[in-house]
Amino acid sequence: MTLYADLHRHLGGALHPRIIYKFLQRQDHKVLSYFPDYDGFYNWFTRPCRTLEEFVKIHSLVEELQSLEHLPYFCLRLCRGAYTFENLQYLELRYNPFFRTDHDLPTPKRLGQMNLIVEVITANLRPAEYPITVKQILCFDRRLPKNINEAILKVAQDNLGPVVGVDLAGPEINTEKTEEWIKLMARARASGLKTTCHLGETSVDNVDPRYFSILDRIGHGIHIPLAKPEYLKELAKRQITLEVCPTSYRQTGVLKDFSDLRTVFARCKDAGVAVAVCTDNPGRNPAPCTLPGEYERLIDHDVIDFGDLKEIQNEGFRSAFGFVGSARH
Ligand SMILES: [Zn+2]
Predict the structure, then answer these.
(1) How far is the CA of 75 from the centre of ligand 1 (A)?
(2) How far is the CA of 244 from the centre of ligand 1 (A)?
(3) Which of 90, 220, 236, 295 qualifies as a cystine partner to 5, CB 3.0-4.6 A?
(4) Ligand 1 centroid to 183 CA: how many Å?
(5) Torsion of CA 321, 59, 293, 226, to 10 degrees
(6) CA of 325 to the centre of ligand 1 (A)
C-alpha cells in the first residue's frame, strides 16, 4: 500500500462536512436554523466560491467552532480520517492559534491563551490506533496587526518540535506590509522554524522576489510559472518547493479547469522547481476529496503522466518540514 504525505492542509478546512454538521447538532447551534437538513449544509459548505475572500468567510465560521474545549473532538476525527481514508503517513496541519482563542476575552488574554491552544492540539494529534505523524505549522494572518503576528511567532518558537514551521495566510491583501512579514519570517527561520507563505494564489501581484531569500516553500505560487516564469530559476536555485492544491483553485474561483495546471507542472519541471501536491481544505471540496484523489485527477486531466507520479509523491516527503524516517511504499 502506498502511503502519502500532505504538506498543506488547514485545520479549519480539514474536516468532512458530515463531522461539522454532527457537531453543530450536538451543540444545537444557531446556524442550523438555516440548514435543517444535511444536504443543504453540504451544498453550502462545499460550493465553489467566486473569490478567495468569499471562501475565507466560511472558513472563519469553522475556526470559531474549533475552540479550546472542542479541539480534541476535531483533532481525533481528522487524524483517523486522514489515516484510514487517505493513507496518509505524514501530515503538516496549519492553523492560526489566535482565531481559536475565546473571542469574548480581551486581546492580551487571548494572546495568553494561544500557548494552551497549541498544547491541546499537540496532545490530540497522536491517536494511539492511527499511526500517522502530524506536525504543525502556525499561520500568521495578513489581516492581523504586527503585535499579534509577533505573538504567534513566539508561540511557534516556544513549541518548536510539534510545531515545525510558520506560514502567512489570509486574503491576499495589504501588500504594503510585505517588509514586515519578511522580517517576521526571517526571525522564524533564525530560530529553527521552517517557512512557507501563501503567495501567488489568485494572481502574481503579491509575489515579491524578496520573499525568496527567507522561504523554504511557497503555498500555491501557481501564478509564478503562469505569469512570471522568469522567477523559476531563482526558486530552483534556492530549492523552494511549490505546494500545489488542484481542487482548491476551482473552489476558490482561481482556475476554471484542472487542465489550466498543465502549464504550472510543465514549467516547474523544465526549470527544476519541485512541486508537492497537497489538499489545502479537503473538507470544503465536494466529496470525495482526498490526497490520492488529487493525484488521480491530475492524471485524469493530463496534467501529469502516470510516470511522474512516484517522483511527485516522494516530493511530499522530501519537502516536509519535520519528517524523519523513510516513506512507506
Ligand atoms: Zn492554504
Answers:
(1) 18
(2) 10
(3) 90
(4) 21
(5) -70
(6) 26
Give distance in angstroms: CA of 269 to centre of ligand 1: 22
- Residue 323 inside a domain? The answer is no
Quote the pTM value. 0.95
CA 84 / ligand 1 centre spacing (Å):
23
Q: Domain for residue 191, yes or no?
A: yes
Question: Is residue 62 in some structural domain?
Answer: yes
CA of 176 to the centre of ligand 1 (A): 21
**All residues with CB under 5 Å from ion ligand 1:** 280
324 occurs within a structural domain: no
Give me the sheet containing 88-95, strands edge to edge.
4-10, 88-95, 133-141, 163-169, 194-195
- State in Å: Cα 150 to ligand 1 middle: 20
Number of domains, the chain: 1
Residue 190's contacts (CB-CB under 8 Å, 6 or more residues apart) are: none
Centre of ligand 1 to C-alpha 9, Å, is: 7
List the grid coordinates of 150.
Answer: 509577533
pLDDT digits (tens), the chain, 329 positions: 779 999 999 998 898 899 999 999 999 988 888 888 999 999 988 888 888 888 888 888 888 888 899 999 999 999 999 999 999 999 999 999 999 999 999 999 999 999 999 999 999 998 778 889 999 999 999 999 999 999 999 999 999 999 999 999 998 889 999 999 999 999 999 999 999 999 999 999 999 999 999 999 999 999 999 999 999 999 999 999 999 999 999 888 899 888 999 999 999 999 999 999 999 999 888 776 899 999 999 999 999 999 999 999 999 999 999 988 777 66
Cα-based angle 264, 233, 241 (whole degrees, multiple of 5) = 55
CATH number assigned to the domain comprising residue 275: 3.20.20.140
According to the 3-state scheme, what is the secondary structure of 286-304? CCCCCHHHHHHHHHHCCCC
Phi, psi of 319 (to 5 degrees): -90, 5
Report d(CA 254, CA 205) in Å as an integer. 14
Which domain does 264 fall in, by range?
A: 4-318
